[in-house]
Amino acid sequence: MKPALHRGPLTRLGDLSETRYWVYFLLFPSLILLLLVVAYPTLYGFVISVREMRLTRPGLNGWVGAKHYVAMMSDRVFWISLKNTAIWVAAAIAIEVTLGFIAAIALNRNVPGTKLFGVLILLPYFLPNVVAGHMWALLLDPRLGVINDLLVRGGVLSTYKAWFADPATALAATILVEAWHGFPFFALLFLAGLKGIPEDLYKAAAVDGAGPVRQFQLITVPMLRTVITAAVILRVISLVNSPDLLLVLTGGGPGNATQVLSLYAFQTAYREFNFGYAGALSVVMFVILMVFATLYIRFTRVSKE
Amino acid sequence: MTIFKTSRGRRLIADILTYAVLVTMTIFCLGPIVWMFLTSLKVEADIVTSQMQYIPRTITFQNYRAIWTQSNFPVLITNSLVVTTITVAICVLTGTLAAYAFSRLSFRGRDRLMLSYLLVRMFPAVMVIIPLFVMMRTVGLVDSRFGLALAYTSFLLPLFVWMLKGFFDAAPKELESAARIDGSTRLGAMVRIILPLARNGLVASSVFIAIAAWNEFIFALMLTTGQGSRTWPVGLQLMVGEFQLPWGVLAAGGILSILPVVILFAIVQRAMVQGLTAGAVKG
């Protein structure tokens, strides 16, 4: 069935695919690329963090050791950012997991129309951060915002409120936007997890006299444990790492009410052009994430056994 | 309250509750988008009013015309398209090979290598971008579309590999073995049997990273300095700062930028969801 080819490059490639070198051939391109755009920059990032590197002052370019890390310890903004990052991530994850769970359970029930609802509910996750940010800035605008209008009409508020400009509400308002943008991710993964639970388990439990609540405790939660673990860690990583939404919504303000580590590092690099200090901030972020991930994975494994 | 006693009654209540939840969530998810769409059709006077105007009194496409003519829109969109295309091309070319290797070949350190592909995502974007910026400035790739696409692969390639591996895993091994018995080389079996079987997965994974590349903001903001490679999200953001665009124009810009995402998502939604979940559930 195969035409007799001359020993062209394709045939030779076919021969190569039979050797043990084939696997290296397959992995080589992506590996080189990742080493180039991730591994090398990361190492370079560590190096930058112990050097002085300011784009505005090209002459300054020397080894300063732990200077940036020491400076960080007495940097008030760093500690505020650290605290805000913790609050922001914890609150957003809690809301997103809860909403995601409710959505997944509803979408997993056999009622007509769940497919369409599924598409509509997942949509926010695929929208650009920039657009999501501006859309919510419009919705919550202190003069023209429709949410203010609805709240005033409903008697919840007496006057329009500048949600993002008030230090008391700014962080909460950005968490709301993040929850809107991120909960479909959990709904998606939880739904897949729910679909993987055999129906028989519930039937057996029902025969044994377990009600819906016991079934949820004894079957749904344990069966979803892996999915929940994976989803939470992936989301924590992306929430800690990406300053996009806060950059668009508040820029860290008012004051430092919504300043988080990723945004602080970003602004240090691109507003003050202080790459060395920004590098040190990102290294600290990376270390915190690594410690968190290790502890988290160990903890969830232990509790499984 | 006999309705709670019978199982039919209980199911009816559960169904009603289900729809209540689904409708509420749909309103929560779509409400903002619908509002943006309505705003984009309003004339300025209907947006800036003392009395909130819910439905536009007159429908206008002026905002769309304005964003097209005032915002350098054609250049920005072209840049976004080119960067997205190059990103997808790089990921498909290199990622498909890697995903195949991870799915079908066994070699020493496979699991560890796969995990390190995922670990890449743990590196703070800012941490990678600063050195990337310095590196790219050295080789003249700052503000180039190719350079930006290269930077995108740092976080999209691992995702692509993981997603596609799930689809490769789902393709039956027997067909591949049969082809090998018939004298096909490993390469032949991969190209003629596995790739066609995983075609939907390949499309879905590509669309997923295309959407992510299209939406990307922070890399694009930091690695572009001018018109050479400035993408649409960055353009949109900079417009807000520089010109204080009226909301109507901004809303029109938002609608225009999510349109391709919505269309692509609707087309490959099911396959994409399968792939995403396969990757995450196993990982």
TrEMBL record, chain A:
Q: Where in the cell is it found?
A: Cell membrane
> Domain ABC transmembrane type-1 spans what residues?
82-296
Q: Which InterPro entries match?
A: MetI-like (IPR000515), MetI-like_sf (IPR035906)
Pfam families given in the database record: BPD_transp_1
Q: What is its main location?
A: membrane
Q: Mind listing the UniProt keywords for this protein, alphabetically? A: Cell membrane, Membrane, Transmembrane, Transmembrane helix, Transport
Q: Which Gene3D superfamilies does this entry report, sorted A to Z?
A: MetI-like
Residue ranges of the TM segments: 21-43, 86-107, 119-139, 170-194, 275-297
Tell me the membrane topology, using the record's own terms.
Multi-pass membrane protein
Family recorded in the similarity comment: Belongs to the binding-protein-dependent transport system permease family.
**The protein's name:** Sugar ABC transporter permease
